[in-house]
Amino acid sequence: xxxxxxxxSPRRPGQPLDALIIGAGFSGMYMLHRLRDRLGLNALVVERxxxxxxxxxxxxxxxxxxxxxxxxxxxxxxxELWRGWDWSQRYPDHAEIRRYMNYVAERLDLRRDIRFGTNxxxxxxxxxxxxxxxxVEGGEVLAARYLITGVGCLSTANVPQLxxxxxxxxxxxxxxxxxxxxxxxxxxxxxxxxxxxxxxQAAPAIAAEAAHLTVxxxxxxxxxxxxxxxxxxxxxAWMRDNWAEIRRVxxxxxxxxxxxxxxxxxxxxxxxxxxxxxxxxxxxGGLQFRAGFRDVLLDETANAKLAAYLKNKILEIVQDxxxxxxxxxxxxxxxxxxxxxxxxxxxxxxxxxxxxxxVRADPIERVTPGGIRLExxxxxxxxxxxxxxxxxxxxxxxLKLNISGAGGRTLAQExxxxxxxxxxxxxxxxxxxxxxTGPGSPSVLCNLPVPIEQHVExxxxxxxxxxxxxxxxxxxxxxxxxAWGQEVKRAADATLLSRVPHSWYLxxxxxxxxxxxxxxxxxxxxxxxxxxxxxxxxxxxxxLRREATSDAA
Length: 553
Ligand code: NA7
Known about the structure:
Layout: E1 17-22, H1 26-38, E2 43-46, H2 55-58, H3 79-83, H4 94-107, E3 114-115, E4 120-126, E5 131-136, E6 141-149, E7 171-174, E8 189-193, H5 197-209, E9 212-217, E10 224-225, H6 233-241, H7 243-252, H8 271-284, H9 300-317, H10 321-328, E11 341-342, H11 345-348, E12 354-358, E13 364-368, E14 371-374, E15 379-381, E16 384-387, H12 396-399, E17 403-404, H13 411-414, E18 433-435, H14 449-469, E19 473-476, H15 478-493, H16 524-536, E20 542-545
Parallel strand pairs: 1-2, 1-6, 2-3, 4-17, 6-18, 7-16, 8-9, 8-16, 9-12, 10-11
Antiparallel strand pairs: 4-5, 5-6, 13-14, 14-15, 19-20
Helix pairs in contact: 1-14, 9-10, 14-16
């Protein structure tokens, strides 16, 4: 690629790395390019999977597809990279995303500095040497000045501890750890637990293949059609030729999507106009269903109108009145939990081979060798259980790394009452550790490549600044972390997002996890401006130290 402007000098044996990056998904790949090819640093990526892809290396469940449109779910930092790739569908499926990431790895020549099949077991900050010492499975220890995590927000599977699971005579799988060779569901009785974005994508695909599908629903969910379709030659050409404009829109919007939110209130339009707008949005498909109005997530009564429309759609689509009632019995505002989009989810319940079980009314008691038994004593015979039960989001992947900072204080101790970060980028007491899309940043509330690019660029610029100024350590002040924590809370409380008690944004899906709203809900554009201002003011809120330190490994 033409934007390689620096070459790292060869590293002497035993010399520490400038930067160790964990994870070879979007974050780690771009971080490597930025540090190695732009700054000339000795950087290495370690990745537990066997290839690039990050979350998408593992997410191969039936129906797995991105809910962001393909032309926005990719790198936008280089027009040349952008123009060199053609997407085939409006929403890319998991295999196409992996093909894209392979294309990027080839074009940027990334693989030579990625060690695959390398699982990090511990990361410890060595204060005397001012180095991070990272232990990988097998016992090898790698040393680096900067440690950068690109471990994703949704990469630690949440498998509920159901009694009896170990005695189940069939097979069980979590959607996020789906076997790479696939699972033959033909002729099988499948039970799917979970009706989040994943379950809503998986159910139609599973029902089409399996003999029978039972969906276990705890919380009924909204969904609107994705309207996925192959991209026409004209549309592909438009995408290729409009890089600058698409990028501009993605950078200007709250959620990093390539569409803008209309500047009107639900209350500005008559009921008839509202129905026309929503009908058109329903037919058009996609996450922009919520983009017709500015106050959907701000005003309960505005939200209720969209919620009523969507519940009515469920009642219209699903023919069995009992199933329809259960599916439409939704207890939270629309889009206050991550809004799914689907390809025939509600229609799936019109098939003869699909049942719905309400596990809020009749909870799962245990797994038996032959299936799942409910508290009422009812037993559902199953050959396969699919856990579409989500993730230990945002903090889970970071805590799994067993990180300890200055004075041996662990990240688990630091975050015992919930994540505490400055801008989602750094943690006090953990110098020179950067977390791409960490808790406290917009992350999962956005089309992720956009916040990933912003974080990677900010971190690379920061490291360039530290090196130019002879600064050896950076970490946030405790006061800055406190103030940012309050800002994250304030931003969430200004919306309906923090009002849903059973949301994974709050950590509520993982037993024992502190209930703290984790992502920054103030919007990507505002967040970007804030980070830029922090840097422009000499890294305001960070403590920069210049003391001489040993470079010895
Ligand atoms: P989610 O959105 O966390 O959904 C998980 C689903 O599993 C949800 O319906 C949960 O019900 C349900 N669940 C979780 N644990 C249980 C137990 N123990 N019993 C019954 N049901 C359970 O995960 P997804 O994978 O769908 O989506 C995660 C993100 O990935 C998504 O937002 C995209 O960004 C990509 P609950 O609602 O908690 O009652």
